[in-house]
């Protein structure tokens, strides 16, 4: 192993897993003059560190004072030192003191609402002319001068005081990285506590970051094996979709028939904010195994498809800022310009929310079905919340599985028990696979096309690609047999296709009315779901009736 390969391997092994960074300890070292590692070992919120509570309180007051100076200081010649002191002090704080400091920033350096209210009153007190067309020239300037003055003052008053801190950090060396870390900490707190002032702080910071990270400020860089080891180890560490198993795997992903592109920003040198991995293929791949273990790859001149199979963000603090939209479109443009024979741009994407949604649906509908049967027996009515999940033939096939390998009193219980089995025994049985394939594929199509939140696709990956202008082309059975793939989507993956002539049209229709464009195959799954009644109500009702001394079946259509 050469020196470069050894360096990448050791750095990647020593670096914390990016996917495991769920608390405030995710923050890297401060802007300058790195703080020693001991200070970061207790920033996970579980303890206050080696100092006693008195020292911790004194430290908090010092950092709070440096933050105040960083916001209010007028002497720009010492501003850099003040910002450095604030950043270093922030990283030395415990989880709890970081939270307290961010609350101080959100509440005490917000906008002056008394002033805003007064300016609004002044504006409402002004008289508008009944016919503006009769007022022009000097008279118009005189008449509206009060409006202009009040509106200018109102725009200024609506800017929170903490905007000055954000603006100053953005122009400070390393400040953009620090702001990303700051927002990551804010988001971590908001996961646990819904604090209105902190949510407003997050919203404002997100808007600022979105402006500063516009495509014009980002450099599209093709990542190759020739890049510095420090950059390549970040690719290994931050790959969030399909983990890179070893150096050979990394070299394969950067070699012939493969491409990796990342967005770089001058304020965060040597670290891609987001990167995307591309495979050059003859056809749209149907399984991730075909992509990751395609060795040797085909000649690039024979490829007709550029397949995006992984896109990963390296900065938790940039969540919700759609850098991926710009990245995908720029990569499509670049690949099309360099390889005109590429005609298809598609993805092989995970469906991270499918099994969680399905298990929740199976559990709730089983309970509703049982409650509904009791209600029918009691008063003859039925629940309006009950929904048939399985088709008659699916219910029959699930109940026909060997009883010594699976348990359940109805098809939904059988499916629930199989999917929640930690051993995933169904994946090794041709009989189980045959029985599960139809309902899982049908329900997956429904999940992607019909299950929505606030008018947009419920699945986060689906929402990402659809808002970028893609269409849902195909769902693929057992496309990801990894433990992660089985637990998230039952091994199913989806192909989204970016049709160059329809990207803007599809993105617009999805944004305006939530319309999801999909292939006829996907629509067929959903349409057949609507037409076919379910046997579930019958089967549960039948068993319930038998327990109560009758063989009559109540059809629940």
UniProtKB/TrEMBL annotation:
One of its GO terms (molecular function) is malonyl-CoA decarboxylase activity. Residues 22-34 have a biased composition (Low complexity). Residues 17-61 are annotated as: Disordered. Residues 150-212 form the Malonyl-CoA decarboxylase N-terminal domain. Residues 35-54 have a biased composition (Polar residues). GO terms for biological process: acetyl-CoA biosynthetic process; fatty acid biosynthetic process; malonyl-CoA catabolic process. InterPro entries: Malonyl_CoA_deC (IPR038917), Malonyl_CoA_deC_C (IPR007956), Malonyl_CoA_deC_C_sf (IPR042303), MCD_N (IPR035372), MCD_N_sf (IPR038351). Residues 217-498 form the Malonyl-CoA decarboxylase C-terminal domain. Pfam families: MCD, MCD_N. GO terms for cellular component: mitochondrial matrix; peroxisomal matrix. This is Putative malonyl-CoA decarboxylase. It comes from Lupinus albus (White lupine). The lineage of its organism: Eukaryota, Viridiplantae, Streptophyta, Embryophyta, Tracheophyta.
